[in-house]
Amino acid sequence: LAAARLSGAEGQEETEMPSQGTALLRHLLLKLRATGPVTVAEYMREALTNPGQGYYTRGGGIGESGDFITSPEISQIFGELIGIWYISEWIAMGKPKAFQLVELGPGRGTLTDDILRVFKQLASLLSKCDVSIHLVEVSPKLSELQALMLTGGKVQPNPEDNSAYMKGVTKTGIPIFWYRDIQDVPAGYSFYLAHEFFDALPIHKFQRTEKGWREVLVDIDPEVPDQLRFVLSPSTTPATENFIQPEETRDHVEVCPEAGVIIQRLACRIEEDGGAALVADYGHNGTKTDTFRGFRNHKPHDVLRAPGTADLTADVDFSYLRQMAQGRTATLGPIKQRDFLKNMGIDLRLQVLLQNSSDKATHEQLLHSYDMLMNPKKMGDCFNFFALLPHHRLLHPDKKHKPEAKSPLAPVAGFGELILK
């Protein structure tokens, strides 16, 4: 836009801008002129999930050709180890007769596909267990891609019998369902998975000032009428009253209330029905300040420019997630991705794959993807794993009533070193 202006191309800005960036920007400018500044959360929600023009609604750019790449897209090992994590928890919890695998924001379905391959390889172990897959996905475009990858496109839209908007059978013969909200997923013993899900939920941003906490808002830039800028709220907002902890020491804070609500729901479900939740995302333990950023074509992108055309994201505050579990479940982590994957046996799995392939290109690809996942400078240190588990999974049964209950609890895979016998 600035370039169009500098070249004296008056009256041509509209055609010079990518058309997809203009519709949502126009919508936001009209809204801001009518109602004044909006919270960063509201801006983020519009940019990512606006029904017509949102970034995810239109399909989101995952993968090499898109705007960002995720671990399952880099290496099959990632999803396989997560599949093994669920199996190991299922065994540790006494092999319940049925479980639902529920993934929040499944992207293109790659991760679920890798997990299903593990379930198929361990079919004899799972033979007496009734497994079903439940995907929580708001994007119509992404759910089509997931259906194609996981079922080969054999799905039935709008099944009448339940709250799912689509259902089918995976290529490995397991029933699969799609929902718009976690509340719609039926109750029951469930394993939950949220990989790079929480980082895309809308955040509120706050700044400490001489007058106390003020919320960061998005408004029209008066100097450049078709551009956006950040401003501070003139007084406190409902969010400042509700989301800032009295003991907060940072000067800039990001809070994601939606993440809090989802963690509460997961914790309640695990407390009532059993199961576990595994969260993998980039984040911190309540120490970072300003992490709101945009990505387009794998490069940083100004968060306020061309809304709807870039992925917007913010680091997950795991200390906030732990607090929001409210003691209903035990929590483990956050632990760095490279430690979690090492504990899960990634080195052993890599060796097996290297031995099983004689092709040089495959070898290089395997080593490159291992480096991407494990290197502290790449994904190894910035991604973390965090889990919610029922308290009884970590507490020893009371020995007074059951002196025979001496069997030690199996360690939780991934969160401690595995001793390979």
Automatic annotation (TrEMBL):
Record GO terms (molecular function): protein-arginine omega-N symmetric methyltransferase activity
Domain of life where this protein originates: Eukaryota
Broad class of where this protein is predominantly found: mitochondrion
Cell compartment(s), UniProt: Mitochondrion
GO cellular component: mitochondrion
The reaction(s) this protein catalyses: L-arginyl-[protein] + 2 S-adenosyl-L-methionine = N(omega),N(omega)'-dimethyl-L-arginyl-[protein] + 2 S-adenosyl-L-homocysteine + 2 H(+)
Gene3D superfamilies linked to this entry: 3.40.50.12710
Gene Ontology biological-process annotations: methylation; mitochondrial respiratory chain complex I assembly
Annotated EC: 2.1.1.320
InterPro entries: NDUFAF7 (IPR003788), NDUFAF7_sf (IPR038375), SAM-dependent_MTases_sf (IPR029063)
Annotated keywords: Methyltransferase, Mitochondrion, Transferase, Transit peptide
Enzyme class: transferase
Endpoints of the signal sequence: none
Sequence similarity: Belongs to the NDUFAF7 family.
Functional note: Arginine methyltransferase involved in the assembly or stability of mitochondrial NADH:ubiquinone oxidoreductase complex (complex I). Acts by mediating symmetric dimethylation of 'Arg-118' of NDUFS2 after it assembles into the complex I, stabilizing the early intermediate complex.
Entries under PANTHER family matching the protein: PROTEIN ARGININE METHYLTRANSFERASE NDUFAF7, MITOCHONDRIAL (PTHR12049:SF7)
Protein name, as recorded: Protein arginine methyltransferase NDUFAF7
Higher taxonomy: Eukaryota, Metazoa, Chordata, Craniata, Vertebrata
Gene name tied to this protein: Ndufaf7
